[in-house]
Amino acid sequence: MATMATETMTAAQFFEWVHRPENANRHFELERGEVIEMPLPGKYHGFVCGNVSAILGNFAASRGRGYVCTNDAGVIVGGDPDTVRGPDVTFYEDAQTSDDMERQYAADPPLLAVDVMSPTDRINRVSIRISQLLRRGVPMVWVIDPEARDISIYTLGRDPILLTEKDTLVAEELLPGIRIPVKDLFALPGQTTH
Question: Does residue 133 sit within a domain?
Fold first, then answer.
């Protein structure tokens, strides 16, 4: 992770900057107005993110409400100066149609933010991201560790909950009816328990 040599930016300036041709195929976040380049994640990381997205997308479709954003869609978690984080997966219920969605970074927090750990992640950096998301109003944050094959569930004012492959994730308060066998997050199609 490297800080880029640029002037302090707002979230809107950052959105324009990251979409310049010279920044294609690179990954950035904005931390207190400073651009931070993040390493691109690997294939297995993307696979786990895809599983999470599919599970949440199927859940939204089955209840006819909510939608999933992937590909590190930006969420503004702080201002003056702005901080924009890119959780791997987010789940929202704030738009009635795709025409209603923000076209840049989300100013309103998602119901759920999911971070899938990468080999380069450090626990203190992950803790800062979790804290920023929760303080911004995200009710629940899931941190998935693909190597340990577990998931930590964070909610504001509560101790985190750790679930292993033997457990089933249930989040009735936030997403009534969702039940995810944790092992399904790490399984190829045909290996899942569904």
Answer: yes
Listed in sequence order, the residues at least 6 apart from 160 whose beta carbon sits closer than 8 Å to its beta carbon are 152, 153, 154
Residues listed for the chain: 194
Tokens 């979790």 sit at which residue?
A: 130
Share of the chain above pLDDT 90, in %: 76
Q: Domain tally for the chain?
A: 1
CATH number at residue 95: 3.90.1570.10
User: At residue 4, does pLDDT exceed 70?
Assistant: no
Q: Cβ(73)–Cβ(112) under 8 Å?
A: no
Q: What is the pLDDT of residues 77-91, one digit of tens each?
A: 999 999 999 999 999
> Residue 101: inside a domain, yes or no?
yes
Task: With respect to residue 61, please indicate whether it lies within any of the assigned structural domains.
Answer: yes
Identify whether 11 is part of a domain: no
Whether the pLDDT of residue 3 is over 60: the answer is: no
